[in-house]
Amino acid sequence: MTRAILQQLVLFFVPFLLFGVYLLLRRRNPFTRHEWDGHVPWLVIAGLLLAIGAFVYLGITAERHSGAYVPTHLEDGRLVPGQFQ
Fold first, then answer.
1. Nearest-angstrom CA–CA distance, 31 and 20
2. Domain count, the chain
3. Global pTM value
4. Lower CB count within 10 Å: N or C terminus of the chain?
5. Where, by residue number, does the polypeptide cross the bilayer (predicted)?
6. Are 15 and 45 in contact (CB under 8 A)?
């Protein structure tokens, strides 16, 4: 679960990173606030669209399991991982 959340956070921050690179290429200081004024709402929207799009894509293309889930358990003193049967 942590990996899925971190991937979505990275996707959310991609537009901000790209805009920072754009500012550097334009020889502007990306660490000053006035360079970001007016652009932040659009960057937030773009980041949310990327993150939501990734969730939707993952939901559509994720592998589906059929059958019942058997949780992790002990058999004859050894640990048997959880699986679908």
1. 9
2. 1
3. 0.71
4. N
5. 6-25, 40-60
6. no
Residue with tokens 């996707």: 11
Residue 84 counted as domain residue: no
The domain containing residue 34 runs over which residues?
Answer: 1-70
pLDDT digits (tens, 9 = 90+) for 10-47: 999 999 999 999 999 999 999 999 999 999 999 999 99
Task: Give the tens place of pLDDT for each residue, 40-78.
Answer: 999 999 999 999 999 899 889 988 878 898 899 999 989
Measured from the Cβ of residue 18, the count of other Cβ atoms closer than 10 Å reads 12
32: left (phi over 0), alpha (psi -120 to 50) or beta: beta
Residue 43 is assigned to a structural domain of this protein = yes
Report whether 82 contacts 72 (CB < 8 A). yes
SS3 69: strand
Residue 66 lies in a domain: yes
